[in-house]
Amino acid sequence: MNKTIVAIIYDFDNTLSTKDMQEFTFIPSLGITADEFWAQCDKTSHEYSMDHILAYMYLMAKMSKQSGVPLSADKLREMGKGVEFFDGVKEWFARINNFGASLGLEVRHYIISCGLKAMIEGCDIAHEFYNIFACDYVYDQNGEPVWPSVAINYTSKTQFLYRINKGVEDVGEHKKLNMYMPKNQRVVPFCNMIYVGDGLTDVPSMKLARQRGGYAIGVYRNPEDASYLVDEERVDFYVKSDYTENSQMDEAMKAILQKICAQTRFWQLSEKSVKNNQ
């Protein structure tokens, strides 16, 4: 019997990493502070009525070129090596995979991020993910960015839940994504999805996952950081961003996996009993 597939879907910045990925190496390389860079992004966004994600992608390409060291995919991957993570993140994936396997579940880890794909690909945990959905550039023959190929903001994140659900993970494939697919042919039912995020940009995805029978976990550095996630009933659990064994996060994730296992067994027995008595 095929194992039941469970998708654990993570935001990246401030969910797994301790701050925005640009703040570890890219922004310091410009000789400015993080506050100065993000303020410039806000200014550009308002001045040109530009999506904030496109604004930061534009400024990263522009400012790096002005500094004399243009961006490239390889350079971004190299910068990704400097990303730091919350306690326990690096050991988290193997432990959760093993726990899921003990329940007969195949756990797949995904990233859906407003950050840059190349930087995530260069970080220490990139190999842990079944797929990484994040912002990216089209690069010219010199390897320099000329146009955004993917720009993910807080609402467009939800598209990728459907891609995971249907198994249509090629970002360039839209026809199959929008075609009707019977529920029994979908790779990962929404009820087998767990979304993990830290704040406002995750709300639409949290809401969609929970509305469709899935789960959401909010993580925080300080409890007051995003307490509205609890107040507005966006999450099933609200826990500290500590991924070590026996932490609140560890216990919450294992509880959800146990519930998915029991729920799957219930449905299988129910379906079998109905068929046997027809």
TrEMBL record:
GO terms for molecular function: hydrolase activity. It comes from the Bacteria. The keyword Transmembrane helix does not apply. CDD domains: HAD_like (cd01427). Keywords: Hydrolase. This is Haloacid dehalogenase-like hydrolase. It comes from Candidatus Fimimonas gallinarum. The lineage of its organism: Bacteria, Pseudomonadati, Myxococcota, Myxococcia, Myxococcales.
